[in-house]
């Protein structure tokens, strides 16, 4: 259980939405979807398929060990309930060790959306260390500007995580690798399931993350799918900064104003858990609610019938892909590294059998459930 302070109200959420909505409109359609990218670069399909086979196969130690350890800096918005970032880091290190690739790693953690200034400081500290590779992410405009400066520098080589859609304006100079899971694909899987549950008729609340990439790829994708059905209506939408308390407050206010709401689309784990707390307090677990990512916190609530549906990332493919890309680059085989690696996503609902769930967890967390000390 968690407690909420009284300082955050609906007014703050509304003001945040109004102030930043223009940024989101300007950001629309800046990204190239995976199918579109492959259509523009058909040669990438073969590279992507071959690389996916490497990720799913057992590790093969590097043939020629570098003269010095490879330096890797990781800057993650990992201070959140979702265990995606922690598992990514653990599986990444496990694979590096299995590849027998000597490395030095510095990791920096922050809260998503709200710690932009801290992320800038962390980036400066990381660059001062002069890493060979930098793992970063993209969600809000300030991060985009940081990344553009890195691309202009040309070093360190940039791995952009949790992003699988190249930016249009970076067309001539892209990062070394985009790696993660297709937000739009996962959202469409859930949208199909959720809309069927309400027979394509009813009202829903949209709980966005923050104005930026995740909200665009998840929230806007769901809104587009819902808009295909004339009897499905969005009654409210809020930016939450991925904050449980804001999601909780927005959900309570929406239920008071629109008690006939049938469905809530949450853009992240913390947002879903905040909404779930509000539904429990209001005795409204009849309202459909999703998670996003399928980490331990979500799977627990799926088992307890709190969440109705989520998409589960085969999480450890993410860290393995980063390690394998660095290995290939260190072997002067960068041409075998695709521009995009997008891992598998599976739809899970509250009726999933325990056997199916166990099998998926074993696959998704095959390295991140192991302590690093075992190698």
Automatic annotation (TrEMBL):
<dbReference type="GO" id="GO:0055085">
    <property type="term" value="P:transmembrane transport"/>
</dbReference>
<keyword id="KW-0732">Signal</keyword>
<dbReference type="InterPro" id="IPR028082">
    <property type="entry name" value="Peripla_BP_I"/>
</dbReference>
<dbReference type="GO" id="GO:0030313">
    <property type="term" value="C:cell envelope"/>
</dbReference>
<dbReference type="GO" id="GO:0030246">
    <property type="term" value="F:carbohydrate binding"/>
</dbReference>
<comment type="similarity">
    <text>Belongs to the bacterial solute-binding protein 2 family.</text>
</comment>
<dbReference type="InterPro" id="IPR025997">
    <property type="entry name" value="SBP_2_dom"/>
</dbReference>
<dbReference type="Pfam" id="PF13407">
    <property type="entry name" value="Peripla_BP_4"/>
</dbReference>
<protein>
    <submittedName>
        <fullName>Substrate-binding domain-containing protein</fullName>
    </submittedName>
</protein>
<feature type="domain" description="Periplasmic binding protein">
    <location>
        <begin position="72"/>
        <end position="325"/>
    </location>
</feature>
């Amino acid at each position: 259980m968690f407690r909420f302070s009284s300082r955050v109200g609906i007014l703050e959420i509304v003001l945040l939405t109004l102030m930043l909505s223009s940024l989101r409109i300007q950001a629309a359609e800046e990204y190239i979807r995976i199918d579109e990218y492959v259509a523009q670069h058909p040669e990438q399909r073969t590279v992507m398929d071959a690389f996916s086979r490497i990720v799913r196969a057992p590790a093969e130690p590097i043939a020629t060990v570098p003269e010095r350890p490879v330096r890797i800096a990781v800057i993650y918005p990992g201070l959140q309930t979702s265990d995606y970032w922690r598992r990514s880091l653990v599986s990444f290190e496990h694979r590096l060790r299995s590849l027998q690739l000597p490395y030095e790693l510095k990791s920096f953690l922050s809260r998503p959306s709200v710690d932009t200034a801290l992320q800038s400081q962390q980036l400066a500290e990381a660059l001062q260390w002069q890493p060979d590779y930098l793992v970063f992410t993209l969600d809000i405009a300030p991060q985009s500007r940081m990344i553009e400066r890195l691309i202009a520098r040309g070093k360190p080589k940039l791995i952009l995580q949790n992003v699988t859609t190249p930016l249009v304006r970076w067309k001539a100079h892209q990062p070394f690798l985009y790696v993660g899971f297709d937000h739009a694909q996962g959202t469409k899987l859930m949208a199909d399931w959720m809309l069927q549950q309400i027979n394509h008729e009813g009202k829903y609340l949209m709980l966005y993350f923050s104005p930026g990439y995740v909200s665009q790829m998840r929230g806007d994708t769901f809104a587009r799918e819902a808009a295909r059905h004339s009897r499905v209506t969005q009654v409210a939408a809020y930016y939450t900064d991925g904050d449980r308390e804001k999601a909780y407050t927005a959900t309570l206010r929406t239920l008071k104003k629109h008690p006939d709401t049938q469905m809530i689309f949450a853009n992240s784990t913390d947002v879903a858990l905040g909404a779930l707390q509000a539904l429990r307090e209001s005795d409204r677990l009849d309202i459909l609610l999703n998670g996003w990512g399928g980490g331990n916190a979500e799977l627990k609530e799926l088992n307890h019938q709190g969440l109705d549906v989520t998409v589960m990332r085969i999480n450890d493919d993410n860290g393995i892909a980063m390690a394998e890309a660095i290995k290939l680059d260190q072997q002067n085989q960068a041409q075998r590294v695709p521009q995009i690696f997008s891992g598998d996503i599976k739809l899970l609902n509250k009726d999933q059998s325990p056997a199916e769930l166990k099998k998926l967890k074993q696959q998704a967390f095959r390295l991140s459930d192991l302590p690093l000390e075992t190698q």
